[in-house]
Amino acid sequence: MDRVDLNSDLGESFGAYVMGNDEDMLKIISSANIACGFHAGDPLVMHKTLTLAKENGVGVGAHPSFIDLWGFGRRPIHGEKPEDIEKILIYQVGAIQGMARSVGVEVTHFKTHGSLGNIAAVDADLAMACARAVKTIDPDMLFIVMPGNELEKAGEKMGLRCAREIFADRAYDDDGNLVSRKLEGAVIHDPEVAVPRVIRMVEEQALTSVSGKKIPVAIDTICVHGDNPAAVAMAKRIRDSLTEAGIAIRPMAETLK
Fold first, then answer.
1. Contact by Cβ (8 Å): 239, 6
2. Is 146 in contact with 129 (CB distance < 8 Å)?
3. Measured between alpha carbons, how far is 256 from 202 in angstroms, rounded to an integer?
4. N or C: the chain end with fewer CB closer than 10 Å?
5. For the CA atoms of the chain, what is the radius of gyration?
6. Which residue range(s) make up the domain with 155?
7. CA 4 to CA 220: how far, in whole Å?
8. What whole-number distance in Å separates Cα of residue 93 and Cα of residue 175?
9. What is the pLDDT at residue 74?
10. How far apart are CA 60 and CA 57, in angstroms?
């Protein structure tokens, strides 16, 4: 491949509480997934993040979650009706779209956050609720998915434009899903480990699980989590290394035209 997107989950500060270094990350990445207020973010944070993204030529997307400010969207919430989750997602995306219009940018993609994404990856009904929400809001919006999981299947069933994502700073199990954050080694903090791993995955178009298993996948975008303390250094190293390998970094809305 000759080009790929580099994304990060941003806009996750809330009021007086600061999460991550969005200003520096937005000078490195090509697409930003911006919190919509239900796990993090608030109107002022959303506006500031969108403005900085516009100034840096970074594509923007909605990053909705369960209603879980207390747990940062990382607590599993079970028992909700998929049709209720669908409405909750439409509400959040509408909020970020309205703020984006005020700044003069377009929301071009959708990516589930935290436990919502983890559960939807294996729960077909929840995955379909996510896909239906996107289809309702904007059938041309890119639907970010992990290759091979229920979100990808739902997106394809609904006729959405799917962007396949890998994670620079997360470990994978043999099924191609993310290793639980509760387990040691699930999050990769060392750029010396993450960078060569990402380059290898992009060049081979395959994931490498914790056991060493190779899982062939299509790769459209690479995520570096913005709340990882090593995020800025890791993203910069990944971008530089990809460029040196002859792979251009472009917003996913451009790479998937």
1. yes
2. no
3. 16
4. C
5. 17
6. 3-255
7. 6
8. 30
9. 93
10. 9
- The domain total for the chain is 1
Q: Which of 152, 141, 126 is nearest to 61 (CA)?
A: 141
Helix 82-103 to helix 124-137 angle, to the nearest 10 degrees?
A: 40
Contact 10, 61 (CB under 8 A): no
CB atoms within 10 A of CB 210: 13
Q: Three-state DSSP class for 4? A: strand
Q: 59 by DSSP, 3-state: which?
A: strand
pLDDT for 252: 87
Packed helices 231-244 and 191-204: angle between N→C axes, nearest 10 degrees? 40
Cα-to-chain-centroid distance, residue 6: 10
Task: For the chain, give the mean pLDDT.
Answer: 94
Q: Are 238 and 219 in contact (CB under 8 A)?
A: no
Residue 180 pLDDT level (bands cut at 50, 70, 90): confident
Question: Each residue of 32-55: pLDDT tens digit?
Answer: 999 999 999 999 999 999 999 999
* 65: CATH: 3.20.20.370
Query: If you search the block for the tokens 């809305």, which residue do you land on?
Result: 253
Cα 68 from Cα 37, distance rounded (Å) = 9
The CA distance from 191 to 168, in Å, is 9
Distance CA 209, CA 172 (A): 5
Confidence of residue 89 (pLDDT cuts 50, 70, 90): very high
In angstroms, the Cα distances linking 63 to 90, 154, 211, 220, 231 are 11, 18, 30, 17, 18
Number of Cβ atoms within 10 Å of the Cβ of 124: 15
Tokens at 252, concatenated: 């996913």
